[in-house]
Amino acid sequence: MKIHEYQAKELFRQYGIPAPDGAVATTADEAVAIATKMGLPVVIKAQVHVGGRGKAGGVKVVTEKDQVKSVAEKILALTIKDLPVRKVLVTPAVVIKKEVYLSILIDRGARAIVFIGCADGGVEIEETAKTHPEKILRHEVTATECAKLDKAKLLPFASKLFDDPKQAAAAADMMVKMGKLFMEKDASLVEINPLIVDDKGEVIALDGKMMIDDNALFRHDELIGYRDMDSEDQDELDAKDAGLSFIRLDGTIGCMVNGAGLAMATMDTIKHFGGSPANFLDVGGSSDPKKVVIAFKMILKDPGIKVILVNIFGGITRCDDIAKGILASMQEFNVPVPIIIRLVGTNEKEGRALLEGTALTTVTSLEEGAVKAAKIGSLT
Ligand code: ADP
Ligand code: MG
Predict the structure, then answer these.
(1) DSSP per position, 238-281
(2) pTM for the complete prediction?
(3) N or C: which end of the chain has fewer CB atoms below 10 A?
(4) Are strands 88-92 and 23-25 parallel, antiparallel or unpaired?
(5) Ligand 1 center to residue 194 CA distance, Å?
């Protein structure tokens, strides 16, 4: 789950990470009321779940009171990277002497939790990472130490981001707090860009981004209110409601599988034979035919689909239930692509019998299915 900047900053403040105050408005009039109370100059910032808001015109400094309304109206009318702006954060404008990038995240490749830092932070960070990768610094920590980091050990890293020893110490202190926040909220990312030095020499988080592990949300009642349904993938939400795990990917082969492990193995096998999966989909155990119909509906929403591979290893899941679901889907939707089906396990015979005489292709092994799907999936 992604959360908004204003929400991340609420958490920052709870953990003692300095971040400017602010209030959220959904209308231009509300923004005016907040700015009047706060005093000018203010910055009005689009609250959407993407970066690069500044470059897209979603972050504006306003110095004159009579401009607040028109600027807020403009930002509230924006769509940034396909996301409509529905809320703005009104926050005091800060004098910026230096902008630094600092984040903590899970680096799966390195199998570690890592702080990433860059002394040249701000809106050009992606460009800097490309042109000067040596400027992007890393500091790995273990999960065991992350919730209670030792400031002294972080100081050498922080000193590479800030020349001033006081500011480096403040940044190291902030890293301790970021580590605690990261662990306690089951985050996969806590990012501050820019982490700035103001005209008084204070180190402050001027932007905040956080991602929380969805699988850990059950133990964070305090974060449930942060969920912004407007910003989530509707298909993935529908799938969750139906008890399916669905993640859209960018390939051409729709996958319908029972069991998360088998779904991963199916995607690997497709890749191995040169294909690319269009989605991860686990229909779960004890799939009733209705679930299969919903699964088909999700897969078929993707216009890039060229073929669907159904891979069912029947245990609790009965192959005849799946076959019934497939037939019901064929009746309900005009399925425009070939369907390749591998059904093995409980009630395999009954399942196959149901599919006999239809235009569906049945295969006896995953390998055979993946090879066929990859062939059709790669046709242009
Ligand atoms: P994004 O990363 O989505 O572009 P940021 O919050 O980082 O959005 O804002 C972009 C830039 O706008 C920052 O790098 C900073 O220079 C400036 N900025 C953001 N907030 C403020 C603020 N409160 N006061 C002054 N400048 C700001
Ligand atoms: Mg930013």
Answers:
(1) HHHHTT-EEEE-SSSEEEEESSHHHHHHHHHHHHHTT--BSEEE
(2) 0.81
(3) C
(4) antiparallel
(5) 7
DSSP string, 201-250: S-EEE---EEEE-GGGGGG-HHHHTT--GGGS-HHHHHHHHTT-EEEE-S
Rg (CA), the chain: 25
| Phi, psi dihedrals of residue 88, rounded to the nearest 5° | -125, 150
Q: Is the CB of 96 under 6 A from ligand 1?
A: yes
CA dihedral 342, 236, 54, 78 (to 10 degrees): 120
Evaluate: CB of 41 within 6 angstroms of ligand 1.
no
Domain 96-224 top-level CATH class: alpha beta
Level-2 CATH architecture, domain 21-92 = 2-Layer Sandwich (3.30)
Domain ranges in the chain with CATH number 3.30.1490.20: 21-92
* CATH number for the segment(s) 234-377: 3.40.50.261
Ligand 1 in contact with 206 (CB < 6 A)?
yes
191 is catalytic: yes
Q: Residue 214: which of 176, 245, 248, 254 has the closest Cα?
A: 245
Residues 338-351 have a mean pLDDT of: 95
Which residue's CA is the closest to the ligand 1 atom numbered 9?
54
Ligand 1 pocket residue status of 207, Cβ below 6 Å: yes
Looking at residues 242-271, what average pLDDT do you find? 94
Q: Is the pLDDT of residue 380 over 80?
A: no
Q: How far is the CA of 93 from the centre of ligand 1 (A)?
A: 9
